[in-house]
Amino acid sequence: MAKRLLDRQIRLLEYLTSGAAIFGGNPATMPDRTLHGIDRRLLDLEARFSYAKRMEKIAAVYPKTIAMLGRNQTAIFEDFVAACPPSDLSRLANARQFYDFLLTRWQSKPPRPRYLREVAACELACAEVRVTAQEDGPGGLPGPSAVRRGDIRRRAGVVLLRCSYDIKAIFEERPGRGSPARRSTSLAVAMPPGTHDPCVFEVEPAVFDLLGALDEWTDPIGLGIAPELDDLIRELADHGLVEVRG
Amino acid sequence: MSRGIRSDAGASSPAIGIGYRAAIGDWTRDHLDRFDVLEITVDHCIYNGGSQRSAIFDLVDRIPLTAHGVALSIGTDVPLDLAYLDQVAAVVERLKAPAYSEHLAFTRAPGRDLANLLPLPKTAAVAESIIAKVRTVQSRVQVPFLLENITYVFEWPDSKMSDAEFLNLICRETGAGLLLDIENLFLNSRNHGFDPWEFLDALPAGLVQEVHMAGGVSVSEDFLERPMLADTHSHPIPAETLDLLERVLARHTPSAIILERDDRLDAVEEILDDVARIRTRVEKVQTEQSYGEASAGSPN
Predict the structure, then answer these.
(1) How would you label B255-293 residue by residue, b for 16+ Cβ within 10 Å and e otherwise?
(2) Domain for residue B250, yes or no?
(3) Pick from A140, A128, A108: which is nearest to A243 by CA?
(4) Do B52 and A41 touch (CB under 8 A)?
(5) Torsions phi, psi of B53, nearest 5?
(6) Closest chain A residue to B154 measured between Cα atoms?
(7) How many CA within 13 A on the CB side of residue B247?
(8) Which of A67, B54, B130, B221 has the most crowded CB, counting CB atoms within 10 A?
(9) Please, which pLDDT band fits residue A17 given cuts at 50, 70 and 90?
(10) Could you give the domains of chain A?
(11) Do B77 and A5 touch (CB under 8 A)?
């Protein structure tokens, strides 16, 4: 295959992912000359099909965020297309790209409502947990020989979020809820054992810190003597937040 | 369970099933008795990970599985990603799949991944490059490799071959089989004005080793003389596609017929109905073939 084909493929994808092809507008932005002979209107149709598929993936991760973007959606999506061409086929990669784009945008133009940044972060966390949640049950995998029965660690894939607004209610789909109150909350997003959907849990700040520290297998005795510790570990394990070496 | 997939109905009867989708994974597991086979998208095992991957691997030995890919981009004019191919090989092995299929297309170029299948110029030079890559795939994935025809919106102006000629050349030179997407064939024939029956007649007997069926929507644009049919995998199979299936079954013995559905997945009754419509057509062809054989064998 001549090298020229790769050049044409690159130019084709540049055009198909451009705002000019997807949203129309500037007729001066014609496809590269290496694409001459292909009907531009068909290219634009292909671009819209591909864009729709990409945005389907993103909308599946951010239904609440996108709804809250309201009438700014169109301008935001156009800017997103211009700033972030698709570089990976996976839903999660596209979702991360959109989140990074929003964060950058919100540095200069804070989001409305203010808590939108946290809603987007929580939706991304749910998507990440869905993908990265560990396959095996608690203690199912053999650990290093130094790991002892009863040791604990944070379950793989759990995402911890500190929020300034009480956004958890938004994820509970409670009817009649108003805007979330400004309140410091500590959230843990996890996939409880035996379930297929991520859950958003609010945890005490001390538990949040504990979960954050449990990167490696840890002997719970080293965490201090607390009569409630066994119950707490059991509860965290039941919610898919920690695993206990069996 | 053997690696060969066939329906319980008989050695020459294709297994009929659907493409596994996580969104209806629970429903699918509850209705395994309605299908002979499930098609697994290997990329769901490679990229999705976690509980979705284990849910797929849990199906091994419960129902025959066949392997399909969407991320190889065999047509991109760069060397194949061998690390990805090795991941595919491992998934195929774990699925106990009898074949691995991919699209004759490209989806990405350095710096961009459209995640949408795009056509290649149908020229001898491009075919030569694809032939070499198919051989690479065959050397790393230890089950038969099948190429799938895609649907396309536009054509490259320098294409010199028909769809059938391009596929035939690559398959003949490599020994690869054809995963014939009959809906894609039907859509292309309508959108680009060629005869799908001629396409089928141009394929050597026995080349089609698996089949995809689906239903889509039509898209109207001011500049189009007639609505364009789009491969959305969202609606019941059109009758014309089922008619083409009958023609395919007259000259080929595919091991599996897979219904693809990616949208409106909650319309599960439509899925079951489409599977039943495929079975009816398969049985019709088999009955006609049996009658023909009996007639040929009769003394008169």
Answers:
(1) bbbbbbbeeebeeeebbeebbebbbebbeebbeeeeeee
(2) yes
(3) A140
(4) no
(5) -65, -45
(6) A42
(7) 18
(8) B130
(9) very high
(10) 1-112 (no CATH), 135-246 (3.90.930.50)
(11) yes
Q: Which domain holds residue B51?
A: 15-297
Q: CB–CB of B275/B16 below 8 Å?
A: yes
Q: Which residues of B touch A (CB under 8 A)?
A: 25-26, 43, 47-55, 70-71, 76-78, 106-116, 118, 121, 125-126, 128-129, 153-158, 219, 221, 223, 228, 230
Of B237, B232, B95, B138, the C-alpha closest to A49 is B232
B133 part of a folded domain: yes
Sheet holding A182-190, edge to edge: A159-165, A182-190, A199-202
Give the pLDDT mean for B86-109. 98
SS3 state at A183 = strand
- The domain total for chain B is 1
Q: Which CATH number is B116's domain given?
A: 3.20.20.150
Q: Cα(A218)–Cα(B47) distance, rounded to whole angstroms?
A: 30
Kindly report, residue by residue over B14-60, the tens digit of the pLDDT. 999 999 999 999 999 999 999 999 999 999 999 886 778 889 999 99
Which pLDDT value is given to residue B299? Answer: 56
Beta-carbon contacts of A27 under 8 Å, excluding residues fewer than 6 positions away, are none
Q: Is there a domain that residue B101 lies in?
A: yes
The answer to whether residues B228 and A44 touch, using CB atoms and an 8 Å cutoff, is no
CB-based burial, B126-148: b 16+ in 10 Å, e otherwise: bbebbbebbeebbeebebbbbbb
Among A7-21, A107-121, A218-232, B207-221, name the one with the lowest average pLDDT.
A218-232
